[in-house]
């Protein structure tokens, strides 16, 4: 079994097929297909059911996923154990982060980290479900997870609280909004809203807080693409709740912005397994603790 075969196998698993896996790896599709076939011959098992053009894991394939991820994680950790010519860590750091945290604090942290450790490349994947954070770390998908807190089922892991994320109300320029700032949730203007689908932790948190204040959001647009919320607001489609840094930027561009009372906020932090951290991972944790606003 070759490491490249394992990498290609996981690429097919993570990208739901050969074509997408080949694209993510930057190789031709037949190259990935041959590697998978070779791995199956060596292991003498079928790892995927071929259904039309689709690839579905067999029971043997499912059994291999966890060990394969741990194998690659061990290699990444080993590569990162060697310092560069200046004595700083090098290698790759894999992080999963909630989309709601990707602008702030993740972008700021990664920027500072790369300035301090230019020899480390950072790969950031999306954390779709907070409940999966512990298993992503345990199964070797990543070294670190940036998530809202608390994180359930994490007794065997370390959770470092780093700060609190706030959401502010952002309305189209010229909107008739009460002058109060912060604005009581009970006094929210009855305007349509641009919202992300229910199920996300921050979306549910905001809806619950407004409901407790006796109100309700009236969706005008439900959108998966979070980055489109601001353009929709500026085009007059409706109001939305944005992370503080994005709301402050929207205010500078002319949007009507209000904080709320009570505030809409949640703590966030890092989830990791200390003994499994590479030098790059340890350096990131130290930087995050050093710069945490708490």
UniProtKB/TrEMBL annotation:
The keyword Thylakoid does not apply. SUPFAM superfamilies: Periplasmic binding protein-like II, Winged helix' DNA-binding domain. Pfam families: HTH_1, LysR_substrate. GO terms for molecular function: DNA binding; DNA-binding transcription factor activity. GO terms for cellular component: cytosol. Residues 1-58 form the HTH lysR-type domain. It comes from the Bacteria. InterPro entries: HTH-type_LysR_regulators, LysR_HTH_N, LysR_subst-bd, WH-like_DNA-bd_sf, WH_DNA-bd_sf. Keywords: DNA-binding, Transcription, Transcription regulation. PANTHER family: HTH-TYPE TRANSCRIPTIONAL REGULATOR YBHD. Belongs to the LysR transcriptional regulatory family. This is LysR family transcriptional regulator. It comes from Saccharopolyspora karakumensis. The lineage of its organism: Bacteria, Bacillati, Actinomycetota, Actinomycetes, Pseudonocardiales.
